[in-house]
Amino acid sequence: MTDILICPKCSQENVYFDGTSNVCPDCFFEWSGEENEASSIPLDSNGAELKDGDAVTVIKDLKVKGSSMVIKRGTKVKSIRLTENPDEVDCKIDGSSIVLKTCFLKK
């Protein structure tokens, strides 16, 4: 198998086939090769489906690129907005509009 597999959830290349499904050790996401439509559903770090207006919590300290701002673990974010990319959500934190990856959020 010479193709490089990319995780549909976190977009990392550290993916392996365990005999029955593809596994990403970075975000613990498992999928078979036929599940193309499942990648269009936004999921949080625990696998729960995200919808517009949901309230989520940040599970890890995140540095904001281009800023000295740090989003602390446990920060609650209200009223998220889904984007065209199922791996990202748009939200407001401290008055700033920020795009966060869904793998760092939990419902």
The average pLDDT score comes to 86
Give the class-level CATH name of the largest domain: Mainly Beta
Order of helices and strands: EEEEEEEEEEE
Tell me about the biggest sheet?
A: 3 strands, antiparallel
Which shape, going by the Cα principal axes?
A: elongated
Proportion of strand residues: 25-35%
Distance N to C terminus: 36 Å
Low-confidence stretches: none
Query: Could you name the CATH homologous superfamily of the largest domain?
Result: SH3 Domains
The side-by-side strand order for the widest beta sheet comes to 1-2-3
Question: Radius of gyration in whole Å, from Cα?
Answer: 15 Å
Helix-residue proportion: under 10%
- CATH domain fold name of the largest domain: SH3 type barrels
What count of helical segments does DSSP give? 0
Number of domains: 2
Which architecture of the largest domain would the CATH scheme give at its second level?
Answer: Roll
Count of individual beta strands? 11
Structural class label: mainly beta
Protein name: Alkylphosphonate utilization protein
InterPro entries: YjdM (IPR004624), YjdM_C (IPR013988)
Domain Protein YjdM C-terminal: 44-107
